[in-house]
Design brief:
The complex is a heterodimer of chains A (260) and B (247).
Chain A lengths: L7 H22 L11 H15 L1 H32 L1 H16 L6 H8 L3 H25 L3 H9 L4 H39 L4 H10 L3 H29 L1 H10 L1
Chain B lengths: L1 H21 L11 H12 L2 H34 L1 H16 L6 H8 L3 H25 L3 H9 L4 H39 L4 H10 L3 H29 L6
Helix pairs in contact in B: 2-10, 3-4, 3-6, 3-8, 4-6, 5-6, 6-8, 8-9, 8-10, 9-10
The chains are: A mainly alpha (260), B mainly alpha (247).
Chain lengths: 260, 247
């Protein structure tokens, strides 16, 4: 059995039976459901196709994803820049670290009301809330990554008389990049949550707003399609992220495999 | 050295906040001044409602955390014992692990209503999968030589789990717990803010929608202080409990 599990195809088949069983169970168990909150999966599926392929897609999904990506991009760029600055200088970071510690202890979603006060209810508020929430994880792990640069590496760079710029691009950033990427991943997950929260609290458009409005007005099928769509998007974002990370850090994963 | 630096930066941050809201660029905006917020925070510290809300939030987080732990550790050990079980559950668990609980709030609010139970359910949902995966990996990480040795001495599976696998998994579980406790607080707040469960989250929503801006900021400050205190506390406790593992 154990040797069989080393084959990729068998691993895939073993991995897939439980999800398939669960979906099948949900489908059959809910088939004759009259519970108003748990309609038949087949009905949810019909409604899902009706809503999201592609009738409501441009109205709700496109703005959600746009806010997410704009806010996320701003957030991780800010995170890397500030993280690199703070990670390179202990003198500066000593003053900022307590503040950062405090701000990241605030639940990201709880900052949404603050952004509503600052920006109102429109898209700018959503983007700002997402950007700020996405900044912290990347900032912290970038800072940690820059601090952890192997000192032998830096000494070697000095011996070869690398310029500051070369040290940055050839040594510091590559050696910090595995940590920076893990910061990107946490940032993405938080950015997604804040995107939805900003829509629910900001009301109007977006998948989160659509789903909560449906639920509030007892349009149960619509609410379920929204929940399913949000779940699928959340999962897809993680999968896409993993693929991009593996590509960008292939040298690092190769190294890790060798040392094992 | 660290405390003074923290104090200086906190004072500077408050001064900048005060200047921004009285002189430029946020003067006469809806953003409250630092002094108004801190005054409100001070008042709130003496109100029993504040402490009741804090307790309700902590209670949801704690209860959800304990339930998640009670489910995840036995389950994690079980699936960690067999490679087949681990691979079978991997995809399903990974799927639910990355789904943030806010996604299912529209359904839970229908089933539970805006109650504490909903908050507890969301916390459990948020933690249980990640904790189970973490435990399973820890159990798998047990030194195989140790297990072989135990087998040689005729020790049964139960003892292998109790004396070798669980201690080996403990550092993994500890990491999971450290992340989980903070996550539990966050989810308890989200359950209030987005789902209307009682506690600080709902207070925040109510004060924001009724335009009590100083109170809104004060609650955000309370949440920050609370989060900081809890994460410090967890690190402190862990150092004592899992003394055999570094970090």
């Amino acid at each position: 059995m154990t040797s069989l599990l080393n084959s990729r195809i068998i691993r895939f088949l073993v991995g897939i039976w439980l999800p398939l069983l669960l979906i099948w169970w949900w489908w059959t168990a809910s088939a004759d459901s009259v519970d108003p909150f748990f309609p038949p999966l087949s009905a949810i599926w019909e409604q899902f196709k009706f809503n999201w392929i592609w009738q409501l897609f441009p109205v709700h999904v496109v703005p959600s994803l746009r806010n997410l990506f704009v806010g996320y991009s701003i957030g991780i760029i800010a995170g890397v820049v500030f993280g690199a600055l703070l990670g390179s200088s202990r003198r500066v970071s000593r003053y900022f670290e307590p503040l950062i510690d405090f701000f990241r202890s605030i639940p990201p979603v709880a900052t949404v009301p603050v952004f509503i006060l600052l920006f109102g209810l429109d898209a700018n508020m959503r983007i700002a809330a997402v950007a700020v929430a996405a900044t912290f994880p990347t900032l912290l792990s970038t800072m940690q990554g820059f601090r952890g640069t192997d000192s032998t590496l830096l000494d070697t760079g000095n011996v070869f008389r690398l310029t500051k710029f070369q040290m940055m691009w050839k040594l510091r950033i590559p050696s910090a990049s595995p940590l920076i990427w893990s910061g990107f991943q946490v940032s993405l997950q938080i950015a997604f949550v804040v995107t939805i929260a900003s829509e629910i609290l900001g009301s109007g458009f977006g998948i989160g707003a659509f789903t909560v409005m449906s639920s509030d007005s007892f349009m149960i099928l619509d609410a379920w399609t929204g929940v399913l769509l949000m779940g699928l998007i959340g999962f897809a974002l993680n999968v896409i992220f993993d693929i991009i990370e593996k590509r960008s850090l292939h040298w690092y994963f190769g190294q890790k495999k060798l040392t094992r | 050295m660290r405390a003074p630096a923290g104090l200086i930066s906190a004072v500077v941050a408050i001064v900048i906040w005060q200047a921004a809201t009285t002189i430029w660029p946020l003067a006469n905006s809806s953003v409250p001044t630092a002094t108004a917020t801190l005054a409100r925070l001070w008042e709130m510290l003496f109100m029993s409602e504040t402490w009741a809300s804090i307790w309700l939030t902590v209670q949801m987080a704690l209860l959800g955390f304990l339930i998640a732990l009670a489910i995840a550790i036995p389950f994690g050990v079980l699936i960690g014992l067999s490679r087949f079980a681990l691979i079978s559950t991997k995809f399903t668990f990974d799927f639910f692990k990355v789904i943030p609980p806010i996604v299912i709030i529209p359904i839970t609010i229908l089933v539970f209503g805006p109650t504490q139970q909903m908050g507890v359910f969301l916390v459990v949902f948020a933690l249980v999968f990640a904790l189970a995966i973490q435990t399973a990996y820890g159990v798998r990480d047990t030194d195989p030589v140790l297990i072989e040795t135990m087998k040689c001495y005729g020790l049964g599976r139960t003892r292998q789990v109790l004396y070798a696998r669980l201690p080996a998994a403990a550092p993994f579980i500890a990491v999971g717990i450290r992340i989980s406790v903070s996550a539990a607080m966050i989810v308890a707040v989200v359950a209030g803010l987005v789902g209307g469960a009682p506690g600080l989250g709902r207070d925040l929503l109510l004060s924001q929608t009724s335009g009590e801006n100083a109170q809104t900021f004060a609650i955000v400050l309370i949440l920050g202080i609370l989060g900081l205190a809890i994460s410090r506390l967890v690190v402190l406790i862990q150092r004592r409990v899992i003394f055999w593992s570094p970090s």
